[in-house]
């Protein structure tokens, strides 16, 4: 049996022959196993696991994809891809001494809706499926916590990605100094900037991800700083810009700006080849960079004493806009609300009204029927940014209701699919697949009862199918007996004929 490392702690596993489940003797974790049918596959899994445990998730995903290229039915490879997508690394809990998951790549998509997760379940054995589902529930709980915290974070304008500490000297990198200068310039201009040295100063390690996730989602511009090629590819730096590029590929209106110094632009990561990079070694480079960011993320000039906000004018405009919303005249409402923002660019009610117009809802409370999370809409993020604490709670509740609605619709869709699968099942495999679908739904409606019933039907189908193999139908038995009788009669006739033929020959 080929050797394999524990994917939780990295210890050597003792694996019994033909088993799909194993418990690590070092950390006590029970885990699923891939099909270890050759040394090469085992080596690939160990290599990918090392990458993932080192938070090099993109490299790990590349290895798992190569495994799936050879075998599209490998459930463990699909599950491993899911772990990489959500940035899952298992660490030791100080209290229980057990290995628990941490997530450094939160996603808007719930893990149960992930395509690779669902595909992996379809190919997994019943025992492996139960472990995948249990671990997915742990990850989902962590992710929901991250999303809840990040929703309370004010939107960021700019994200500065860089390496803070040199691993050889233990000192601050030149990248950090450049980032500090850029941060100070932008903050002075009124921008909200994510700069880990300042932004995460008072946060513990476990609290980093909600803020990082919120910043990645909201920031219009990311500046990636590097003075050495290896700094650009440092684990956490690459984690940040890799996730940001993924958002851009998915259609987000964002811009990534690579900046470098004391190195050649040809040494930038190949993923930056299509981007306009900036050499910070040139005279006036910082001023040029700041000017470029101002163009990408324009700042509204603050209201001055010479140009005050006339509340007396704005209030009737807002009332008229909301009347238009009530009459479903969304274009007219949007026109009026845009005029309000030209006069008062931080007017929360105007941003909420524009969101209502965008979603074609007449009442504010109907925002809860949005097809996707409200945090994905720019008008919502602006409203949340400028709202007072009390109204932020209202907006947060709206978004939570949207999230819950999306999850409920997804559960109902999957529930109906499971019912259809059960009704169409005609054999053991069909019933087992239906049972797995119901099991994934947990306590939703009567899914647990359906899962149990499908497993019973699957067992019965198994017994019936096994019996059919060894039981010869009565009709077949009768036909066999008739054939045997015919053969016997034929043999008897031939014997008599031979005997008669012999007697005639003697006459």
Could you tell me how far the N terminus lies from the C terminus, measured between alpha carbons in angstroms? 80 Å
Number of domains: 3
CATH class of the largest domain: Alpha Beta
CATH superfamily of the largest domain: Toll/interleukin-1 receptor homology (TIR) domain
The CATH architecture of the largest domain can be named as: 3-Layer(aba) Sandwich
Rg from C-alpha positions? 33 Å
* Order of strands in the sheet with most strands: 6-5-7-8-9
Poorly predicted spans: 301-308, 503-507
Instruction: Tally the beta strands.
Output: 9
Sheet of most strands = 5 strands, parallel
CATH topology of the largest domain: Rossmann fold
Shape: globular
SSE run: EEHHHEEHHEHEHHEHHEEHHHHHHHHH
Number of helices: 19
How would you describe this protein?
Helix 6 (174-188) links the parallel strand 5 (158-161) and strand 6. The longest helix is centred in the last third of the chain and has 36 residues, at 389-424. The strands form three sheets. Strands 6-5-7-8-9 form a five-stranded parallel beta sheet, sandwiched between helices. The chain has a two-stranded antiparallel sheet with strand order 1-2. Strands 3-4 form a two-stranded antiparallel ribbon. The chain has three domains: 21-151, no CATH class; 158-296, 3-Layer(aba) Sandwich (Rossmann fold); 311-404, Serine Threonine Protein Phosphatase 5, Tetratricopeptide repeat, CATH 1.25.40. Mean pLDDT is 84; it is low at 301-308 and 503-507. With 507 residues, it is of the alpha/beta class. The relative contact order is 0.05. Helix 1 (39-53) runs antiparallel to helix 2 (57-70), helix 15 runs antiparallel to helix 16 and helix 16 (389-424) runs antiparallel to helix 17. The protein is globular, with a radius of gyration of 33 Å. It is built from 19 helices and nine strands. 58% of the residues lie in helices and 7% in strands.
